[in-house]
What we know:
The protein is an alpha+beta fold. Helices cover 42% and strands 22% of the residues. The chain has helices at 7-20, 27-34, 38-51, 75-81, 92-104, 109-116, 121-129, 152-158, and strands at 25-26, 57-62, 65-70, 107-108, 133-138, 146-150, 170-178, 183-188. α2 packs across α3 and α5 crosses α7 (121-129). The longest helix is centred in the first third of the chain and has 14 residues, at 7-20.
Amino acid sequence: MPNKLEDKEIRKHIEALLFVAPENVSAGQIATILDITSDSVRKNMEVMVEELSERGIRVQVHKDRFQLVSAPESSQYIEQFLNLEATSRLSRAALETLAIIAYQQPCTRPTVDAIRGVNSDGVMRTLLSKGMIEEAGRSESIGKPILYATTQDFLQHFGLKSLDDMPVLNQEKSSEIKDDGPVLVQQNLLKE
């Protein structure tokens, strides 16, 4: 029988758990610890995301996993306080590749190559090594190429709470590209 905690108390405990967690935590893990349902965790997490939206910490949501992170607008002060070098910059090719993966995910390297018009092997290796993308399975198309998706580090790097916070695509400038059968849409990725 699930615990009878009030929502405000649930949020207090969720915040404490996220604060001490060394990495992102699933709704199921939190639900088990607090003896409540995963739906209750998600409902309370939505409230927490809103409550913390104007504070120095935020709740980051990625693939039904949650993590407390610092507010992106505080990054320069945090870097200065911790004596960190400026965050690593991504090349234009890396940003293009990341944008394609973010909006098409999961997608294959041949898909990225077709949209960019150049080989993306090196850029993909760099993004994998930086933890910005990860393997997300295999495609069912011929040769079963690897599917790639963005990671929680991607969200942190760009100061996003979730993939839903990404800018809306400009739908007006699109053309069709074929890759292994399915039709993909190449788009001007960010509204101007």
